[in-house]
Amino acid sequence: MSPQTSNILVVDDTPDNLRLLSAMLSEQGYKVRKALNGNTALKTIYQVPPDLILLDINMPSLNGYQVCKELKKDPKTKEIPVIFISALDDVLDKVKAFNVGGVDYITKPFQAEEVIARIENQLLIQRQKKQLQQQIKEREKTEQTLKVYLHAVSHDLRNPVLGFSLILKNFLKQEKEIIEIPRKVLEQMSKSCDRQLNLINSLVETQQFEMEVIKLNTQPLNLPKLSQQLASEWQPMLAEKKASLHLKIPANLPSIEADSDRLWRVLENLMANALKHNDPGIKLTFRADIIKEEGDLNPQVIRCTLEDNGVGISPEIAATLFERYQRGNRAKKSLGLGLGLYLCRKIVEAHGGEIGVITKPDHGAKFWFTLPIMPNQHPSH
Q1: E strands in 181-321
Q2: Which of 183, 213, 300, 355 could form a disulfide with 348 if both were Cys (CB 3.0 to 4.6 A apart)?
Q3: Are residues 110 and 187 in the same domain?
Q4: Residue 276 and residue 128 in one domain
């Protein structure tokens, strides 16, 4: 806040004092507004808040103390520094001025140098406060971004590592020096490594999380094929939890324009949550259906659902489940940050879709999301 940009309101019921202070401040480069009484001052402050107020105390109708009290009640004006300028020089008058929210007190008759020095001091303090507040906001933003990164590393990268571990443990049970691994297994592991490399690359794109914008690399995607690959790769984790995954996706489903790595993350997050928050032995069903809007001849979107027969989710938790740092019913057993479903929402919304959950306690949960069908795509016959 320099003198050229600082806006100062002078409030005094004596016109000569107003003219003197206004001329003095204008010579220093300040933008000056004037008010002859407390009511006029409040109106002009609420319309365009100044950077600082020079306020007389003894005024008719509404005195300076009352004006200051009103300003400090309002969140929009309470941070504006108020310097009292008055002929009252009793200690009690000054104490009262500070008690109602004043930041300084100048006794009349005043010296121009003193007034300017006190104003510049308060403007400097305001400028430093704003800088500090901005630094705090930036630090909080950085901490939130770091939490997103930590989640991606601890959650998204954990799933394939766990899968690799289970696969390798099964092979190591064979008491042989040389173990043969089927080509299909190696291909699955290779594809998973590629997906994780893409995820790591996305993590270094800091702006996408800081700005809460998900950048997509979209291509025509065959959802039935992707779901088969996911089911195959997740088989070790499903077996570990004695769970089953049933795919009910029409083979003739039209192509969608999607980022396969991001969509894989959505499905992995939904499946990982279902396994984590339910007892062993649950049944998962993944469906995909074409949704047509009434009166529209062409299909509009594909609706995907992942349904389980587990413990369900309470309505209170379900209402905020896709917000940042929200967790499921059994979150106390987990050290997760509650970011998985939040990221699912961001990814689905980046694709132009919506996401939600249908659930009630003890009746399982059905997570759903929609994806737009590519233009001119229709189910094959």
Answers
A1: 219-221, 244-248, 256-258, 283-291, 301-308
A2: 355
A3: no
A4: no
